[in-house]
Amino acid sequence: MAAPLSVKVEFRGGVELLFDGVKKHQVTLPGQEEPWDIRNLLVWIKNNLLQERTELFIQGDTVRPGILVLINDADWELLGELDYQLQDQDRILFISTLHGG
Amino acid sequence: MAARQEVLALQAEVARREEELSSLKQRLAAALLEEQEPTPERPVQVSPLPSKAALSRDEILRYSRQLVLPELGVHGQLRLATASVLIVGCGGLGCPLAQYLAAAGVGRLGLVDYDVVEMSNLARQVLHGEALAGQAKAFSAAASLRRLNSAVECVPYAQALTPATALDLVRRYDVVADCSDNVPTRYLVNDACVLAGRPLVSASALRFEGQITVYHYDGGPCYRCVFPQPPPAETVTNCADGGVLGVVTGVLGCLQALEVLKIAAGMGPSYSGSLLLFDALRGHFRCIQLRSRKPDCAACGERPTVTDLQDYEAFCGSSATDKCRSLQLLSPAERVSVTYYKRLLDSGAPHLLLDVRPQVEVDICRLPHALHIPLKQLERRDPESLKLLGEAIREGKRDAQEGAADSIYVICKLGNDSQKAVKILQCLTAAQVLDPVTVRDVVGGLMAWAAKIDGTFPQY
Question: Where is the Glycyl lysine isopeptide (Gly-Lys) (interchain with K-? in acceptor proteins) crosslink found in the sequence (chain A) (predicted)?
Fold first, then answer.
């Protein structure tokens, strides 16, 4: 049984527009059988935070192309992507790449 | 009395000279453009810059403040003088970037931009002036830079970077700066840099945010390592739709110039393998660590599949410009032109005009008789907004002559959101949330209204 976790979830680069413009969310994830990883964090975000147009954030079981996931300021690719197990007080940032110039 | 007369005479003289000055400025702008050769069919042939053994007395004076920096010194300045930089995009990022590179004494700047200067560019594209509106940005930038530093060789390319020309062009330069404004060009520039073995300093900006990193430098990741798949076209926002503050592109362009200078002078960049995020609203910089080069990357991996430049517009499902897209969600019968709507308005036929733009755009300009409900409220089926709309429809029906059709015309800035709104209103009437009513949208929106019907209506 994994204990409840408190994590900071942030959306930037325009992703926040899918979350009513709110960039920072202090989130408490309830205790559950399985450890919390990014895969089930995405499901939790989809069910609890996402206001509209899910497909602009999630495709399949991962984030859509063009969104970079950062775990404590490091590219999630360095930490196992969807399989990274969340720790209490982690900072998870979802950032859309910008293309304007 | 005499004093009063002198004031009047001086005022007249000042006015006369101001007029003369303004006419001189116009002639200067025209002459600067005259100086430039017409756009060649093929990229200008440029020979390698000769190596330089020493700085002249004038150069020492000009660059003295940076020459006394031990990290740069004479050695670094000599390297800058023989360095060439290709700048892809002479817009909000490219202008400040090119300006600082020219000021610092970089030997040659290639300036790529297919677009022309528009008034809405001037708030952030600081090399272009009012007098050059309508002229090619590449030439306008080159003219500005020559005035700043005549020793820097500026090579304008007033054409789009294409898969046919990119590789040849990139190979002629030492460092490449991606200052473009669209996804296909970003993949094109990346692949050309990987194939040609050139470092790529890449920045972007939108609204109050900016991002900068260095790709394909000394074994670091390339753009495709980090973004193997392009984003869905409908998730990409351009500066015209999303807005951008000029200072934000300015800050990013300057950071880009710094990275280019450090690479060109041999100091090495700071953001290879990391991405700097700038949040101008919070005044916050955050540097995050990116992944390493991916062995399975399609461009720079061990067995690359990108061995040639491809069709990047097809790969990304979008065009290589930042111009607004035109959606086609409705049939022609569900749409009217601005000319049709103008006739309808003049005839006094009862109808409801629904403006679905965000409040911030309605604050800029509006048609006074329109009811305003933002598309976002309709998408959410906001009860307050639906009540307002329902009342407006019922009121319209009361006022309408017997037998007159009950119609709603939906308008927005360009005619994309209005189509989405028509789809929603059709659903709402079918579900009997709203009274039966015919809903159509106005093709081209308020910008078409400004262009074709009312020349005094603002364009933005």
Answer: 101
